[in-house]
Amino acid sequence: MDCEWWDWNNDLAKDIHDTLKSRENLLLRLKGGSKLMYWRRYLVDWLALTCQKYRLNSNAQHLAVCLYDRYTDKYEIAVDELQMLVLCCLLVASKFEEREEKIPKFKVLLDHLQWSLNASEYLNMEIKLLSAFEWHIGFPTASHFKEYYMQYALGARDLHAGRQLVNREQAYVYLEKNVNYFLEVSLQDQAFLVFKPSLVMSSCLAAARICLHISPTWTVDLQQVTMFSWNHLVPCIEVLLRLHDDDRKAMQNNFKNSTSTGNLGVHSQHELDSTGSTPVASPGPHPTFPNEMHRNATIPLIVPPHRYNRGYLV
User: Fold this and answer.
1) Disordered: where is this region (predicted)?
2) Ordered DSSP codes for 103-142
3) What integer is the mean pLDDT of 182-192?
4) By the 8 A CB rule, do 27 and 144 touch?
5) Which CATH number fits domain 29-132: 1.10.10.10, 1.10.472.10, 1.20.140.10, 1.20.120.450?
6) pLDDT at 8
7) Residue ranges of the domains in the chain?
8) Which residues pair with 164 in a beta bridge?
9) pLDDT digit string (tens) for 10-46?
């Protein structure tokens, strides 16, 4: 079919959405005991850049990160195997989510990356990855809920800064741009691993509406479609907005530094756009560990002890 599932008739699209919601309820909360958590941010950034280069869709990118998180949370893996694992997660996810002609070829990837990986060793890693999940890798991610929820992103009575929306098409473009930004943020920080994917997507949409001064922040339609009230979203939104503020402050500091040195070109490349969103900085591709203690540190993923438990993984 030419159209995607969220464009089908309302009953069928709702059934698919409800199936995704039921499948996310089966996801187990991650233990957060991986000794490789320090590397996660760098690998997620690498996946984002690679997906962008090969024009892979957002579902493939999010699924690749999901596979990486769930595999490393369950199994011990050496640092020198990370390249093989992250490449395997990318290719498996792209095979699952993309059309065949868009799936990157293993040899092409290796030539581009200049990694010295063996094809037979890669196949072994792919078998290990698939076997770890018993070949059931159709995990719902925040990205899988995006297009369905975006159909309800703007309500008929929404206001911008207290006034009626003049150009709804333009408002939607800005809103989607902010939602994409927050989805990237949600991938990069391990704090979001305790939340259900649909709640993360809902919170990204609410955070985007906040940044664009669209009111009400959470409409009745959005509550009915997502099955989350405002109270369920608050903890996740708070983290998103805090990280957004950190990005803004970092960009402002970069601007001050570039101004003091007379280098305005850096600012022009990373200037805040009219949506108020900021680009997410990517660290260098070859990080070094400060010390042995930092490398082996684990980050526990603990469900906060308050009333918003319906939005957390069990």
Assistant:
1) 252-293
2) SPPHHHHHHHHT----HHHHHHHHHHHHHHTTT------H
3) 92
4) no
5) 1.10.472.10
6) 56
7) 29-132, 142-282
8) 159
9) 778 888 899 999 999 888 888 877 778 888 888 999 9
